[in-house]
Amino acid sequence: MAMAVESSCRVKVVDESHVCPPRGSVSPTTIPLTFLDMAWISIGPMQRIFFYEFPGINTPHFTQNIYPNLKHSLSLTLRHFFPFAANLTCPPPPNHPYISYKEGDSVLVSVAESDYYFDHLTANQARDNNAFHQSLVPKLPTPSLLSEETHAVPTMAVQFTVFPNSGFSIGIAFNHVAADGRSFNHFVKSWASMSVTHRLGDLPCHDKDLVEDPDGIASIYLNDWRNFLKNCSAPSSADSGNGVTPPAVVPQEKVRLTLVLGRAEIEKLKQLVVAATQTQSEPAAARISTYVVTCAFIWVLWMKIQESKEGTTGGHLDDDTLSHFIAPADCRGRLGLPFPTTYFGNCLAQISGSAKRSELMGSNGIVVAAKAIGRAICKLEKGPLTGAENSMSHFIEKLKMPSLLVTVAGSPKFRVYDTDFGWGKPKKSEVGHIGHGSFSLNECRDEEGGVEIGLVIGRQQLDFFNAIIEHARAEYSMIG
């Protein structure tokens, strides 16, 4: 039976302000983009939402007693994480974009009120995705024109949404070119610490010279993206006009679900894969981790969902067609360089695996997927940036067949449920920007060793999704 899905989140903005680092605390700075940053130059904003329970709260109480401290602690945190208050400056080709900060640059911060049901938004069942993707996360401010052909694009915006008598959420949108998930997580945890204890932990490292680029990979990536956008079929009016940011995504009728795999279920998946690899006389040590089996499970699930879509639209793909799995992998500690764990920016390589559609859809689909992902991780560890000059063009080629591409956002290693602004662990944390073949991973809030998987599917696919999940739990003895 399909679960009910409520209508879009009703939100009213009641306050807007700009938060800067303390005056005089950051010198005017220009930050070049490394090729690891340039890989994300045309990816849309990242979106993360934290929900906190607060019975009895109302908007006046929030704005008078909570909001001032959150803004003040944000200002103090931005002193050290100033790229989030800066702008991505995009000059005309062939010049490279760069991040620039000057006195007075700021983060747009808004307060909103919603009459939507807090408990429904923070549940696991199907919910209207527009509530997350559009209503609870701010849009980045409109790019400003610095000259006839040069644009400045803000890198972050924050929205607090109050749910009277229930709680509030913190929604953050940020430009991936400024920071990867680990850097963003460092920022949010630092902000939370400053809000509660008035102290920061480890400070970020902004030394871009740590990333060497003797082969000019940054220029290769920039040209790859510019050529892709030039040929993009989306209407030009949706583009920001700077030639490097992506067209806007048109909202669709989607629902969001959270699938929880407990520790026992994950262990059963591991046992299944290990038993199959041993039977096939293959090395059982081919990276059969929680991450691998979880991603394998979702990869196969996503392919089955895509097949249901093709069945309704009359589409068809050959069984030998390759499906692709791509996930980011943190390179800190893998580059053979003195790369601190606090390095701020992007330091990601690709975990890239492929498998035939027919094999993924077969009885051993999860085993096939797990082996492909495991091999990709082993290859990455031998040389995380081997062939980096071609990785962006390969990725863009895969974007042209979105039904065959599965990507991952987030990581259980981020420990998002440890983000405490003074109200304990979040009741829920969501990645807002998933969809279009991507899913999110969080650690499980209520069970150590479990995983929360965020998915966005078409509303009309909900019955099919519920059916294949129940079938999977029975097939892999994952009941309980």
Q: Can you tell me about this structure?
A:
This protein is an alpha+beta fold and about 475 residues long. Helix content is about 30%, strand content about 25%. It has helices at about 35-40, 60-80, 120, 130-135, 180-195, 215-230, 265-280, 290-315, 355-360, 365-380, 390-400, 460-475, and strands spanning about 10-20, 30, 45-55, 85-90, 100, 105-115, 125-130, 145, 150-155, 155-165, 165-175, 255-260, 320-330, 350-355, 405-410, 430, 440-445, 450-460. The longest helix is centred in the middle third of the chain and has 24 residues, at about 290-315.
Attribute tags:
480 residues; alpha+beta; Chloramphenicol Acetyltransferase; seven-stranded mixed beta sheet; 18 strands; globular
In short:
The protein is an alpha+beta fold and 480 residues long.
Major sheet size, sense and barrel closure: 7 strands, mixed
The H-and-E topology, N to C, reads as EEHEHEEEHEHEEEEHHEHHEEHHHEEEEH
| Radius of gyration, CA atoms, in whole angstroms | 22 Å
Per DSSP, the total helix count is 12
Q: Report the principal-axis shape.
A: globular
User: What percent of residues adopt helix (DSSP H or I)?
Assistant: 25-40%
Number of domains: 2
Q: Which CATH architecture of the largest domain?
A: 2-Layer Sandwich
N-end to C-end Cα span: 19 Å
Unreliable segments of 5+ consecutive residues:
233-242
Mean pLDDT across all residues, rounded? 89
How many DSSP E strands?
18
CATH class of the largest domain: Alpha Beta
CATH topology of the largest domain: Chloramphenicol Acetyltransferase
Spatial order of the strands in the main sheet?
Answer: 7-12-18-17-15-13-14
What is the strand content? 15-25%
